[in-house]
Amino acid sequence: MQTMAEEAKGPIEHNPKILSGPVLANSPNAFLSKSVLTRYNDLPIPKDNILATYIWIDGTGEHVRCKDRTVNFVPKTPKDLPIWNFDGSSTGQADRKNADTYLIPQAIYKDPFRRGNHILVMCDTYTYKMQPTESNHRIKCQEAYDQCKDEEPWFGIEQEYILLDADLRPFGWPPGGCPPPQGPYYCGVGANKVFARDLVEAHYRCCLYAGIPISGTNAEAMPSQWEFQVGPSLGVNGGDDLWVARYILHRLAEEFGVIVSFDPKPVKDWNGSGAHMNFSTKTMRAENGIEEIERAIDKLSKAHMKHIKVYDPRGGKDNERRLTGLHETASINDFSAGVANRGCSIRIPRSVAFEKRGYFEDRRPASNCDPYAVINALIRTCILNE
């Protein structure tokens, strides 16, 4: 059993003792007094000054960047906001000799950190020639959605993640060892089973304040592993909502002195982390929609490896570690579907099978997937028949 930080140091031995409390002393942010900031947060600023945090996906396809600017009006739509630029050579998105890369605002959310009229702005990225960067999957997702708006595709995303301490060990795990085997941690309660609920609670409320349709959260199968659910979101909005929810989580974690990891398999021999995608169309949600669900699953079975290649940022390499056929996953090489079966590629919920309409869950996307790429693939395979 190895963590990312200790992979080269040999296995972590199983340690059955009760977990010790989390230690934040080795986090640089822990040395900063958060109370000092309150001396400045209430400083009055001109009423016509709105602080806008522009957020974008960098060249890795899985990490977000951000920077702030002041605008002198309250924007009603993303198009009201100015196009901006950044140094793409520092984010893996441009050459150093021609580094300017464009940010085009696409979605606006309320800022839960500054509050008031201040905003978070989800952007996509374009080269100096105004062509989409390699990590800009939003534009194809938007194009796909525009072709099937009448079907009203809904997406609900179950985002799993793990919290790490400053030494990149799972947060709250005993030094040099592992906690007792998984079992009591999923949806657990108690100081020896659950860590950092404060952060999770803050994230839940921040997302709701921002306008993100977060629909729930729970502790997961590994201690310090959590999940939140976003949706149902319509079409490309699902990607916007999840990316901004991820940004808020990272931003909150700074204040708590912990690190958020979306690595799909952070510790061997424990459950990995996914971003299960719940998907439905108007036809699937209608009476006897189970027939459309079954047709969609048949189409997915014929495009399995094409989907695997876009379900993590490294073309399936990350999912190779997670989709092993163990720990509530199907094998990456085999497509399967079943009712209430969490060992399948596609799960049909028991209630859907009973009511004969609803949605299905694609359990293959990795926790670090780009939701725009996943949504795009599902629309094109299941609705557009590409």
Spatial separation of the terminal alpha carbons: 41 Å
Mean pLDDT: 91
CATH structural fold name of the largest domain: Creatine Kinase, Chain A, domain 2
Give the overall shape. Answer: globular
Q: Give the radius of gyration.
A: 21 Å
State the order of secondary-structure elements, H for helix, E for strand: EHEEEEEHEEHEEHEEHHHHEEHEH
How many β-strand stretches? 15
Low-pLDDT windows of residues:
1-23
| Top CATH class of the largest domain | Alpha Beta
The tally of helices reads: 10
In total, how many domains does the architecture comprise? 2
In CATH, the homologous superfamily of the largest domain goes by the name: Glutamine synthetase/guanido kinase, catalytic domain
Map the helices and strands.
Blueprint: E1 13-14, H1 34-41, E2 50-57, E3 64-71, E4 84-87, E5 100-110, E6 119-126, H2 138-146, E7 154-164, E8 177-178, H3 197-210, E9 214-219, E10 225-234, H4 237-256, E11 259-261, E12 275-280, H5 282-285, H6 290-302, H7 304-308, H8 317-322, E13 337-339, E14 346-348, H9 350-355, E15 360-362, H10 371-382
Parallel strand pairs: 1-8, 2-6, 13-14
Antiparallel strand pairs: 2-3, 4-5, 5-6, 7-10, 7-11, 7-12, 9-10, 12-15, 14-15
Helix pairs in contact: 2-10, 3-4
Protein name: Glutamine synthetase
Subunit structure: Homooctamer.
Domain GS beta-grasp: 50-130
